[in-house]
Amino acid sequence: MNLKHDFSGWATKHGLKCSDGRTIMPDAFIHNDGQTVPLIWMHQHNDPSSVLGHALLENRPEGVYAYGFFNNTDAGKSAKEMVQHGDIDAMSIWANQLKQQGGNVIHGAIKEVSLVLAGANPGAFIDSIIKHGEEVEEEAIIFTGESLDMYHAEEELNHEEEKIKMENEKQPGSEETVADVFETLNEKQKTVVYALIGQALEEAEGSDMKQSDIDEIKGELEFMKHNLFDNDETAVRGNVITHAEMTAVINDAKKYGSVKESALAHGITDIDFLFPDAKTMDGTPSFISRDMGWVTDVMSKTHHTPFSRLKSIFANITEDDARAKGYITGALKKEEVFTLLKRQTIPTTIYKKQKLDRDDVVDITDFDVIAWLKGEMRIMLDEEIARAVLVGDGRLGSSEDKISSDCIRPIWTDSDLYTIKQPVTVAANATEDQVAKAFIRNVIKSRKLYKGSGNPVLYTTEDVLTDCLLMEDTTGRVIYETVEKLKTALRVSAIITVPVMENLTRVDSDTKTRTLMGIVVNLTDYNIGADKGGAVNLFDDFDIDYNQQKYLIETRCSGALVKPYSAIALEKLVSA
Fold first, then answer.
1. Antiparallel, parallel or unpaired: β 513-521 and 457-460
2. Which domain CATH number covers 437?
3. Domain range holding 422?
4. Which of 131, 320, 339, 426 could anchor a disulfide with 430, C-beta 3.0 to 4.6 Å?
5. How high is the pLDDT of residue 98?
């Protein structure tokens, strides 16, 4: 090219593997052919005095060749002198809009050429220096002569991020820019990239790795320091860490104990953006909820029928009138008399409803928010049914959200024919040990009244269970060292704590307040019935007017004890 340029050389060459592992492919920058870009000193964009002139680019089969033209500023004249003197012998480029296939760079846009102390590409060098004046002559061809660290500029912090995204999402023949792809990149993928950087640095420093391996990690970190995905170039350039600064930080990291402290010692305050971002432990947000183990127990142990209208009929033959009688000759034979007892339980609907704005559904890409929300709805529906079965939903009778106790009959407050109400009478000043002792005594003594199936379970609270386990004898020895020993003494198959039973009270017919301490029952004797179509169903619908996705989970069922005297409710009653 017959131009009065000050110097010329390879800005970058094709087919050479850079120290960061990438290879620039032929014609990757073909559209830059003939373009003029700024000539900068060491890629320092935040200082106008660092602009040395401009460079004219020429795409060749071997790579991109650059013709440099210095300006007449003091910096330009100084740089020209250093190039002519041989003090500066390398160039590097700043390119954005990079596209990759694996580790191959197939497209990019060169935005500037910089004179640097070390070339960015192993094949970059200045091969001709031209003087202008009366005599025009080629003074020298200067090669780098060594393997150099890769130094791409501003927008390459997230190269690894780009590589992951290109491999996962790029379609053959796509014309998307890197910025377009970045719009679909989620935080989880970014976190992986940053974590890899931090781990590589941590493992390299203070290890017995070969120097060549450590140099490779340093090159990787240096390469990652600029964000290829950021559209706000000016804002990113304000946080640039130069090659010399980064090298000094890495070399001093052992002395200062950490890379961060080393960076601060060098006056670099933005080192944190090289380290991994915080990431969630699980893929989805965790629920803060009550202990739900008892819910599974209740829902699995109750008896289930495919019909919801329950009718119970019993003949009471416990009275004396129902007894068989002796006969005296000539006397009148009397008929047996007994009472028929019956009740009917009808179903009710229990539901939970949720909604999400569709914009939120689309924007949340880190996890499946719909599946997560549906899981929460099922958890809460099951808990509400289990609560209603044991103790009722706790809402006031006037509440329109109340689950009718005539449809799902709570074991605690069920008719005396089904649930035995056993008072645990204690003095007002009774100690915790005394209350626990009275509770255990009443559970054991009331066991003879139990007429339910098999060996029942004790449902109680953590406080009651703890007080029982802390009971001591007169010598200070713990009486029941384990839950197993306690359940054996109470003649129950298991002891299960139920958070929703805490501090529940009711007022009896004598206007006395009773506090629930436990329920002894075998849930096989409790029937939950649902007609066909009344089992748990999940519905979803889209509200086109409000752009909302709505979800409903519901069941229509009934529930009641079906055996007389099949449950015992232990209630603390404070004596006057």
1. antiparallel
2. 3.30.2400.10
3. 290-576
4. 426
5. 73
